[in-house]
Design goal:
The protein has nine helices and no strands. Helix 4 runs antiparallel to helix 6 and helix 7 runs antiparallel to helix 8. The protein starts with a helix and ends in a 13-residue tail after the last helix. InterPro entries: PAP2/HPO (IPR000326), PAP2/HPO_sf (IPR036938), UPP_Pase (IPR033879).
Length: 200
């Protein structure tokens, strides 16, 4: 473990020691923002707009790709969580002791949120901001080093780019979405103004 990584961890993790209200914010972002992300994906899906639905499909594929890459990275390098190794860590949440490299939360948030940015640039930056806040919060609560979240973020971004670039070549995704929407239409008909299926 590099001295710089540990020093960066201490600087971020110690923020709450002098500002206790930051602890509560960090715990909220570290523990509950995943539910907000899932809710956001559900809302996008049920707008029943083809662009949003294809974005969600690609985001899910991006997560799978990122998780596979993350597991591979974890085979080449590993270390336990800071609270399990370092003294006087400001540990704010319960967490099992296992390999903390790379950060799963960073992988999930950046693989999804960066895909959102590529598809919906206007509000995409807000999703990236959310991903960054979650990543920092995982250090503040004592369960990850900065290198864990940076590596997870990089893996997530690379995965999102790969999926976004190859998506136009995967015509079966459009066919799959069209098939789903045909079934959905028979159960919950859209209004006449509803948009028809278009390629992503």
């Amino acid at each position: 473990m590099s001295h710089l990584n540990i020093e960066a961890f201490r600087a971020i993790n110690d923020l709450g020691k002098n500002n206790s209200f930051l602890d509560h914010i960090a715990v909220f972002f570290a523990e509950y923002m995943l539910y907000f992300l899932i809710l956001g994906m559900v809302v996008y899906w049920f707008t029943r707009k083809d662009k949003n639905r294809m974005m969600i499909i690609l985001a899910m594929i991006s997560v799978v790709v990122a998780e596979v890459l993350g597991k591979i990275a974890g085979k080449f390098y590993s270390h336990f969580q800071p609270f399990a190794v370092l003294p006087h860590v400001n540990k704010l949440i319960n967490h099992a002791i296992d390999n903390s490299f790379p950060s799963d939360h960073s992988i999930i948030f950046f693989s999804i949120c960066f895909l959102f940015l590529l598809v919906r640039k206007k509000e995409g930056w807000l999703w990236i901001l959310l991903a960054c806040l979650v990543a920092v919060s995982r250090v503040m609560v004592g369960v990850h080093y900065p290198v864990d979240i940076l590596t997870g973020a990089l893996i997530g971004i690379i995965s999102a780019l790969i999926v976004y670039w190859i998506a136009p070549k995967l015509s079966f995704l459009n066919k799959l979405l069209a098939f789903y929407e045909k079934i959905e239409e028979s159960i919950l008909p859209r209004s006449k103004s509803g948009n028809k299926h278009k390629n992503f």
